[in-house]
């Protein structure tokens, strides 16, 4: 393999493991030094408990091997391996003869809840954290007397809960920031509609839905008439108000499963799945007239969507550009015919592969997204 090919493949290898799986691999190695110490220093463990430690080490090796093999653990796999790992830590702590060594090993019970907080659902995190707290408290108060028992129990609870809480808070904050950045990247800041980048996944789902339902895709280009004159005579602030008002008028008229986006400038795009072209565009014209003192021209193209080869590579951007170009021709007709009107065009059928949604569950999900 050449160096160039190796560089191309390296990102895929690095992304094979998620953070949670990497944590399981690295943290599972904690039992191996215990076995080495127990062999070198027989008094380190309680008498006759070395075979139990060997069994824990075997489970650790199996955990590491399984995680390396699957790469990214499912929630169920992580729960099973994490629970087994915590039980192994608790048993190791109990096997150690020196109380100070046992307390040091007990602190490792905080690892699994912290890993769960980094990437598991809340119910998994809460259940593993609760189990870790119970084990840590039981091990900490074992052999302690009087007030020391309560101090040891409090320290054990703190050791387990604080890292999990901190990581959960960091994860929530990161997800919130990521969501805001994604919203900014996918929407037009002026109108709040989708931009081209944001609408591509929605268009892909819409094409799949049209293919499944054997309906057509209707593409409407809405362009504000004489918008340059608005900016030149009334200023750009007034132009922004016009664009916002037109966007709101369009959004009020389209069905909930339609894709509405601002392409840029004074041009808006509406895509929907429909058996036939209805009077939606006329309603948009009237809504704009009643909302502000401008008019719009609309070009509409309709294309049937047929199932294509599952092996075919179809670019959603190329398909969208083809449909938009057909609607743009109709928009030109509306403009040259006097503006403030709708013009229609028919486009040749579009093929869309359904290889990625071949299962019944995936098909239902596509249809559900259209109905929501």
UniProtKB/TrEMBL annotation:
Q: Which residues cross the membrane?
A: 21-40, 52-71, 78-96, 126-144, 150-170
- Residue ranges annotated for the GGDEF domain, each copy included: 215-347
Could you tell me which SUPFAM superfamilies the record lists for this protein? Answer: Nucleotide cyclase
Record has Cell membrane as a keyword: no
Give one Pfam hit by family name: GGDEF
Which key words are in the record?
Membrane, Transmembrane, Transmembrane helix
Question: Could you tell me which Gene3D superfamilies the record lists for this protein?
Answer: 3.30.70.270
The yes or no answer to whether the keyword rRNA processing is present is: no
Q: Which NCBIfam families match?
A: GGDEF
Q: Could you identify this protein by its name?
A: GGDEF domain-containing protein
């Amino acid at each position: 393999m050449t160096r160039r090919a190796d560089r191309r493949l390296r990102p895929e290898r690095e992304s094979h493991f998620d953070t949670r799986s990497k944590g399981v691999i690295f943290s599972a190695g904690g039992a191996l030094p215990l076995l080495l110490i127990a062999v070198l220093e027989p008094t380190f463990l309680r008498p006759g408990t070395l075979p139990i430690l060997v069994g824990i080490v075997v489970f650790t090796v199996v955990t590491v091997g399984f995680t390396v093999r699957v790469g990214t653990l499912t929630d169920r796999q992580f729960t099973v391996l994490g629970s087994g790992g915590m039980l192994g830590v608790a048993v190791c702590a109990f096997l150690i003869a020196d109380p100070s060594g046992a307390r040091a090993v007990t602190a490792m019970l905080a690892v699994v809840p912290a890993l769960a907080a980094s990437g598991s659902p809340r119910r998994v995190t809460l259940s593993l954290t609760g189990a870790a707290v119970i084990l840590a408290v039981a091990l900490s108060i074992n052999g302690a007397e009087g007030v020391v028992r309560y101090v040891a129990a409090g320290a054990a609870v703190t050791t387990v809960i604080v890292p999990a809480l901190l990581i959960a808070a960091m994860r929530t904050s990161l997800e919130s920031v990521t969501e805001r950045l994604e919203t900014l990247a996918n929407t037009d800041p002026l109108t709040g509609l989708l931009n081209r980048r944001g609408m591509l996944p929605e268009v892909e789902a819409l094409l799949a839905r049209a293919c499944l339902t054997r309906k057509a895709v209707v593409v409407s280009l809405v362009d504000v008439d004489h918008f340059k004159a608005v900016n030149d005579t009334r200023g750009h602030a007034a132009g922004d108000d016009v664009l916002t008002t037109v966007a709101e008028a369009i959004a009020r008229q389209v069905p909930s499963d339609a894709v509405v986006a601002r392409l840029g400038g004074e041009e808006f795009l509406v895509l929907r799945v429909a058996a036939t072209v209805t009077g939606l565009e006329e309603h948009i014209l009237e809504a704009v007239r009643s909302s502000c003192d401008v008019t719009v021209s609309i070009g509409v193209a309709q294309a049937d969507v047929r199932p294509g080869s599952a092996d075919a590579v179809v670019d959603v951007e190329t398909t969208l550009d083809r449909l938009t170009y057909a609607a743009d021709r109709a928009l030109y007709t509306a403009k040259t015919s006097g503006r403030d009107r709708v013009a229609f065009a028919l486009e040749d059928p579009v093929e869309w592969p359904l290889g990625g949604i071949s299962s019944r569950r995936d098909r239902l999900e596509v249809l559900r997204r259209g109905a929501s």
